Amino acid sequence: MALTDEQKAFYRENGYLKYDKRILNDAEIDALRQRSEDIVYGRLNHIPPRFIQLEAKFRGNTDLSVDPLDTVRKMTQLCYFDDLFATAAKNKAIVDVIEDMIGPNIKLYTDQLMMKPRFNGTVTGWHQDSVAWPQFAPQEHVSCWLALDDATVDNGCMTVIPGSHHWGPIARQYQDAFLSNPLLAEPRPVEIKAGYCMFHHGLNFHRTGANTTPSRRRGLALHYIRAETMYLGIEDEEARLLTECEKPRGEFRFMLIRGQEFPGRV
Ligand SMILES: O=C(O)CCC(=O)C(=O)O
Fold first, then answer.
1. What is the number of structural domains in the chain?
2. Strands in 133-187 per DSSP E
3. What's the 220 CA to ligand 1 centre distance in angstroms?
4. Cα separation, 4 vs 212, whole angstroms
């Protein structure tokens, strides 16, 4: 068991947990940063372009004077294509916590290396992960957000609304009404040092601010689900290819992280 009773109670009540145990040492952080840079600079080309998203203002813009590392918004599914990122998703200290939260049979739904580039990083608006990913039943995710740089209020750390997960999934058209309701707690920024992480419930409302500072704020978001989860599939072909790592329809299985997988499930 990784979490104390106090930590479990905090997570149950607040829907997030800033974790006190260091996950990555300096060498491991450097290796992941280096890998992300090798991908962005094209020194490695094992990540299909579909999974690398630029900040909006650089899409279709070939201004060569900008450092490419300052233009990338996020890279997704790295764990499925890259051994170092896969190792991070299977990190024992992280997965022990996930097991405390969702049980012994664990799969990775997806991962997002949120680059929040210095000078150009834009806001990620308020959202609930589980609502963004309705193709699962039940719609339950738990995420680990692992800092590869120090994440601060100034450079766009995670901000959560404690306890917001208790209200269930909120349809998008009601989000503004929900977020302005006085029953909600005040948003709370969660600053995290490189190598440390936080966890959040799939129904917890969270956002990250812009990064106009000269410091990078890379964070690896690892999203886990129970292996018992039903997968409802994705109709739209572009969205499916992203989720299913470009595999032909019917071939993809989500990555088993711990425990066993089940026929007909994710
Ligand atoms: O790192 C970010 O900027 C956003 C992360 C996020 O929304 C998530 O982990 O669900």
1. 1
2. 136-137, 142-147, 158-160
3. 8
4. 37
- Classified as helix, coil or strand, 102 is helix
pLDDT in tens, 53-92: 999 999 987 777 899 999 999 999 999 999 999 999 999 9
| pTM beyond 0.85, yes or no | yes
Which tens digits make up the pLDDT trace of 186-222?
999 999 999 999 999 999 999 999 999 999 999 999 9
Atom 8, ligand 1: residue with shortest CA distance: 221
How many whole angstroms separate alpha carbon 29 and alpha carbon 82? 15
The predicted structure's pLDDT at residue 61: 79
* 49 occurs within a structural domain: yes
Q: Flag whether 151 is in a domain.
A: yes
Please indicate whether residue 222, judged by its CB atom, sits closer than 6 Å to ligand 1: no
Residue position matching structure tokens 């450097």: 30
Specify the length of the chain in residues: 266
**129: Cβ below 6 Å to ligand 1?**
yes
Q: 225-249 pLDDT, tens per residue?
A: 999 999 999 999 999 999 999 999 9
pLDDT band at residue 11 using 50, 70 and 90 as cut-offs: very high
Ligand 1 proximity of 114 Cβ (cutoff 6 Å):
yes
Is the CB–ligand 1 distance for residue 110 below 6 Å? no
CATH code of the domain in which 140 resides: 2.60.120.620
Q: How far apart are the C-alpha atoms of 146 and 137, rounded to whole Å?
A: 26
Q: What is the domain extent for residue 79?
A: 5-258
| Residue 77 in tokens | 């599914």
Q: What is the mean pLDDT of residues 89-106?
A: 98
Whether residue 263 lies inside any domain: the answer is no
Specify the residue for token string 């917001």.
Answer: 164
Residues with Cβ within 8 Å of 48's Cβ and at least 6 positions away in sequence, in order, are 81, 246
Domain assignment present for 85: yes
